[in-house]
Structures are given as structure tokens and as C-alpha cells.
Amino acid sequence: MASNPTTRIGVLLLDAVQVLDVSPIDIFGMLSQSYLSTTPFPASLKAGAVPMEILYINQAGPDALHQCTASLGLRVDASITDKICAPPEEGGEKTLDILLIPGPDPWAYKPTDALNGFIKGHFGSGTDVLTICTGVYPAGHAGILNGRNVTGPRPLVPELSKKFPEAAWGNEDKRWVSDGNLWSSEGGVTNGQDMVAAYIRQKWPGATAEAMIAMAEVGERSQYYESP
């Protein structure tokens, strides 16, 4: 039997991202072969593990820890220009299957041509882009929200709709929104965990995904808020 291809996930670290914004990556990690192989779960569940590689990426590269909130430093694996994760040339094979963008401080974030090109290049190559909370700002600066149904932090949606008017923002009743290969989450930062659970259920449906989601105790909240 042919082995499944490795899913490569890039976590784009921008400024001092919030630790809770980064945390949904661990739900992916729980589904990986490297994690499940160490557990006492039955072979039937381990058979559903996903070959996975997770890269932590920033603009500078792996020379120093990337500082997050709560005095946490994350090890960086690559810069946005490194071959392992740089966007492919036109018509080339994509280097990332998933790009997760945890939210930076939206008022301090300074987009650059390099960062915008990195995000836009991956999106255009078919990489699934998942934004957590204010991670929708870098996506907006990169121009990938245009013409898409999107959402963002509820208190900031009025500002976002003015800043990025080419996107469709009428989704305040939803915890997350998906439109093609773009997923965005709104409300509190933990909605990113529910969004990733929904994404995993769609991409890798089955008992293994459900077991890991249940173990993490995420993904049980409805996509819709009970009230606006």
C-alpha cells in the first residue's frame, strides 16, 4: 500500500503573536504520526494518523527565538524566503499544504512586500490559509480577502470592513467562515481551535480525527453564535 504524502503546515509568526492564537496548531499535531505513534491507542486509531511536518516561520529566520505573549519564545525553523517554505514559482509545486496565521497586534503590525508576497503566493498556489483572530489583517494586507466571505474579531469587524472593503464581512453570527481555500475565525481567540477542528473534520474525516478532537475537548461549539 502506498504511504500517504506528508502534509506540511507552516505557522507564520508575525510580531508578538498571542499564545492562544498559536495553540490550534497542537490539534493538528495530535493527529500526526509522530504523536499517535507514542500513544497506547488501538492500531485502528493509529492507522488514521497523518504524516505531518510543522514549520514555524517568520521573516527573519531561525537565528533566534520568536517572542510571543506571556514571555513565550518559539523556535523558528525557517524564514519566508527559505526554499522549504517559500511560495512556488508560477506553475510550480506548492511547498506548504496549510498556512496558519496567528494574529499579531493589528495596530502594531507593519506589512511588507515580502510578507504580502509570501501570503499571497501560497494562497494563489492552492495552499489552505487559516487565519486566527487578528491574523485576518495580514491576509487582508496581502489582498487574499478580496471577493471572499470572511470574518474577524467581532469588535473589529466594522473597522475591518472599511479597511478591506472588497471582502464580504456579513458573517458576525459565525465563529468561523470558510470560502474555498480561505478559513477565517472571529470572536474570542479560542474560536480558532473550533475552526481547526472543523477543518480537520473536513480534510481527514473519520474515527482518528474525532478521537483527537474529543481528547482536546474542542469543536463542540456550533459554528453559529446562539445570538448576535
From TrEMBL:
Instruction: Note the Pfam families from the entry.
Output: DJ-1_PfpI
The DJ-1/PfpI domain covers: 69-187
Alphabetical list of InterPro entries matching this protein: Class_I_gatase-like (IPR029062), DJ-1/PfpI (IPR002818), INH-QAR (IPR052158)
Q: Which organism is it from?
A: Imshaugia aleurites
Organism's domain of life? Eukaryota
Gene3D superfamilies named in the record: 3.40.50.880
The entry's protein name is: DJ-1/PfpI domain-containing protein
